[in-house]
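INFO  loader      accepted 1 record
INFO  loader      residues=386
INFO  predictor   begin
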Amino acid sequence: MPKLSRNLRVIILVILTLSLVSLACGLSAPRATFPTPTLRAEVVQPIPTASPAKIIQVTDQEKVLVDLYSRYNPSVVNITVYLNQDRSLGMYAQGSGFVYDAQGNIITNAHVVNSVDVVEITFSDGLIRQASLVGMDLFSDLAVVKVDLPQGITPIPLGSMDELAVGQTAIAIGNPFGFEGTLTSGIISALGRTIPSQTQYEIPQAIQTDAAINPGNSGGPLLNLNGELVGVVDQIETTGTSAGNVGVGFAIPVSIVQRVVPALIDKGSYDWPWLGVSGYTVYPALVNAMDLPVEQGAYVSSVTDGSPALSAGLIGATENLTQDGFTVEVGGDLITAIDGHPVKTFDDMLVYLSLQTSPGQDVTLTILRDGKYQDVKLQLGARPTE
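INFO  predictor   done
INFO  writer      dumping tokens
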């Protein structure tokens, strides 16, 4: 075989090298692999949508809300009330309510069913049944109506005020503007609010929330993330130009529900304890005008005729003075404790009386009069209905 010249060998070697480079450039490189990112704790398995190409990542809280709505929306009802006008029933208003027990007792607001002729309950599946009034308490704005429950509907369990904290999630289910089965969520914005009732007395320990509630939500449940009742939706703060939600709503606390509702079911009414004083929380001008040795307490401005407070000798304000530019009522007793529990505000006394006492119960007030402390014992009466 003839020998190749040196130049020819070089040419052949270059051609072979170029051929190998060309083949290498045409190969499919292995696809780069990366570690699968670890999902955050609040992410669960994706839920497929109608299109297999799309998935939605659902957080733990979203799943809780979905499950909660599925479980308890059937327990929330739309309440429609009618008035008899000119021998014909006409729809008067709508509100919300929820199932309290297996006997068909449903909780709502007193202002929803007060002085109406017919109450209709609409369940989540559209079934409509007529209800009867069991009991009503205007002081707490709570009422109970009763209806034959369809099969499969369960009561909403009651929670506890002791476990509530500002910042926790709050969920409302109801019928705002008649839109049945509406769920909204927010947070507990504040605790211990005092709100108006349907009487001259106020409702203590109310819950403030920014969950969207509107006309028609009245009487519906306010729930925690465990699906437990923490309050009954009652009223909203408005701008005065609109009846819609502005982020400030209030619910009657479950602590009052637990005291009032069993009595409404048992006898149709609830007896509130009665002390018989009016007043307010101590403020700087009052401290200066009366030369008080303390800066906190519940000041007694007046004592009601025929009340336990009057019988026990409590004293209200006796005259008006001008102090620091304010007109100040002076001469009344200052309550600093009740049964040994400190009273720093007038609301403190109202909460204790409402949640810890009953008519006929003896209590001891620690008062400051003429610069000296003394204990006053008295027996609470039943709050007058008029």
